[in-house]
Amino acid sequence: MRTLERLRNALAVSRPIVTSLAVLAIGATIAMLNSPIASAQSDESNRERVTLSGTHDDVQFLAGRSVRITATVTDDVFAAGRDVTFDAATVGNAIAGGYDVEVRGGSVADLIAIGANVNVSGDVQDDLVAAARSMRLSSDGTVAGDVRVAAETAEIEGSVTGNIRAAARRVTITGSVGGKVDLLAERIVVGPNANIVGDLIYRSRE
Q1: Three-class DSSP category at 172
Q2: In this structure, are residues 36 and 55 in contact, taking their beta carbons and an 8 Å threshold?
Q3: Angstrom distance (rounded) from CA 75 to CA 77
Q4: How many of the other CB atoms lie within 10 Å of CB of 206?
Q5: What is this structure's pTM?
Q6: pLDDT tens, residue order, the chain (206 aa)
């Protein structure tokens, strides 16, 4: 909890969001132990690969080695696995944890992601909160709200309507930011085509 408190203070993330980050790890374990997907009686292939498709109007809990969401979900989605992919999916709030977490096309309302690699090439309709070794908002990715990230490397190639607050070893911004940017990093790179409308506040060793 002390680590999460430090993360909250560093990124100025609201308490409900930080609580969700903590609950994700606990919830993923519970889902893995109790869901039919991961029970001892389930088929091995089901434990390895979990796919959610179709249309759903209730909260979805997913756990497996590889989790792929292609569905339309009007409520929240909690997903945990080695690989978690939102593939052209349309979902409400998405809370995902895995080694690789990817939003490939489609849209999510809010995205909270924890992983070694977090890649977003879809649309986030509100805020993006990420804790990762590597976080990338690709040139095809958009965030209509704010971005808050703690990572070893953070790359912003796409469009952010709101503000960016990041703590990382290296931060690279080559896209557009409609609000202000507040960075804490060892190295900061702002590309020649980057467009930052608000103030740029930074603390860096270089």
Answers
A1: strand
A2: no
A3: 7
A4: 8
A5: 0.79
A6: 343 444 445 445 444 444 444 444 444 444 443 444 433 333 455 568 999 999 999 999 999 999 999 999 999 999 999 999 999 999 999 999 999 999 999 999 999 999 999 999 999 999 999 999 999 999 999 999 999 999 999 999 999 999 999 999 999 999 999 999 999 999 999 999 999 999 999 987 65
Residue 124, strand partner residues: 108, 143
* C-alpha to C-alpha distance for 84 and 42, rounded to whole angstroms: 20
What length is written for the chain?
Answer: 206
**Chain position carrying tokens 């608000």:** 198
Give the chain's end-to-end CA distance (angstroms, integer): 31
CB 115 within 8 A of CB 132: yes
Report the alpha-carbon distance of residue 84 to residue 143 in Å, rounded: 19
DSSP states of 129-148? EEEEEEEEE-TT-EESS-EE
Q: Residue 180: exposed, middle, or buried by beta-carbon count in 10 A (0-12, 13-18, 19+)? A: middle
Of the candidates 145, 107, 148, 110, the residue with the CA atom closest to the CA atom of residue 131: 148
Structure token digits, residue 9: 């203070």
The letter for the amino acid at 162 is: G
Q: List, as one string, the DSSP characters of 75-112.
A: S-EEEESSEEEEES-EESSEEEEEEEEEEESSEESSEE
**Tokens 């740029």, residue located:** 200
